Structure formats: C-alpha cells, structure tokens
Amino acid sequence: MTSPDNMPNDNPAQNNDENQKPSPKKKNKKQLKIWFLIPLIVFAGLMIMLYMRLGKPVEIVTNTALERPVPTFELPLLSDTTRMMTNDNLPNQPFLMNVWGSWCPTCIIEHPFLMQLSERGVNIVGVNYKDDIGNAFSYLNQRGDPFSMSIQDLSGQFALDLGLTGAPETFVVDGDRIIRQHIIGEINEENWQNRITPCLMVLNKANESGGSPDKQQIAEVCQ
Known about the structure:
Elements: H1 12-20, H2 24-53, E1 74-77, E2 80-86, E3 95-100, H3 105-119, E4 124-129, H4 133-143, E5 149-153, H5 157-162, E6 169-173, E7 179-184, H6 189-209, H7 215-221
C-alpha cells in the first residue's frame, strides 16, 4: 500500500512552480552582478560630471568681506590678553591685515618678507589664528614681529568672517576700514609689486586727499 508521502504529485502547476524557483547559487550570482555594476555606474556618473565641466572656469568663489567694512570684533591683544581690541583700534589709514599662525608652514616662508615690509614702513595688523599663545610668542621672538599689533583669534570666527580659506592670507584695508583686496596664500615680492602696491597707491592717494577711492580705479587695480 502506497503512503500519501510516496504518492506521485499529479499537480503539474505545483511541479512548474518548484522548477521555476531560483536556486541559492543563481541568487548569489545575480547579487554579485549587481554589486559589480554599482562601481561602474558611479564611475560613469563621475565621468559625465567631469565632461560637463570641461571648458568651464574652475575658480573657487570665496565668501569674503571684500568691499565691506572689516567685520565687527572684540578680541584680546596678543601681547596683552587682558586688553580687548575692537574695530576702533584699527588704523585710520590703509593697512594690511595678515592672518597667521605658528603652526602654519607657509606663514614661516612668508614671514621674512613681512619683516621687510615692516622695515619699509608698511602697517601690518596681525590676526593670530587658532594658535597656542605660548607658541605664538615663541614664533615672534624667534623670527621678529612685523605687526603693529596682533589680535588673538582663538576660535577662528573672526577669520571666517573675513572670508579666510586658509592661513596665511592678507586683506588690504583702506582708511575707512573697508576691505579692498584679498590675497590668498603668502605675500611675496611678485604679488607685492604686481597686485598689492598698485592697490595701496590708490588707497593712500584717496586717504591723503580726504576722499573715498574711485570705484573704477579700485576695480582695475585691487583685483
């Protein structure tokens, strides 16, 4: 006598369903194919994006305080942190505002040229950016102090308000304490002669006459 378990399955639909079920091996192969395709899809997307950018400008536009007054601040004087400096303590004639730090390798490269500018009578206000005060003092003691004053920007917020992208950077400020030029990276003889000096000449001339610098001249020489 044949038991129900040993009886042949007379339902063809059920047999077809069982035959159509994918085996675990087939499932694994499909998953591997999908995972293999993902990097190719991502790579293809990146290539399309790069192709779309061909021939277009790649300059990074920074959100600087250019053509605006120096951002409002109240920060300690580096040489005497019990004294708080504000915008009222800034020079009322054209000057440079240099963001620096003892931890910054490019600042070390730039520093001798800042010393030269200081010896030529260029007024430079320092912004000591996210620095340990002991390290900052050691830095200036070893290399000399080119700054008429340095303010301590320990949090870095003031530098960010200026539009800093990374130290060192320098801002050329006119007699009304409006930022007219933003130099990214170190100051050297080349950009001093070609960019900064022409801008300062226009700003100094306007300051001596007691007027505001000509906007067209600013646009031409303070780039």
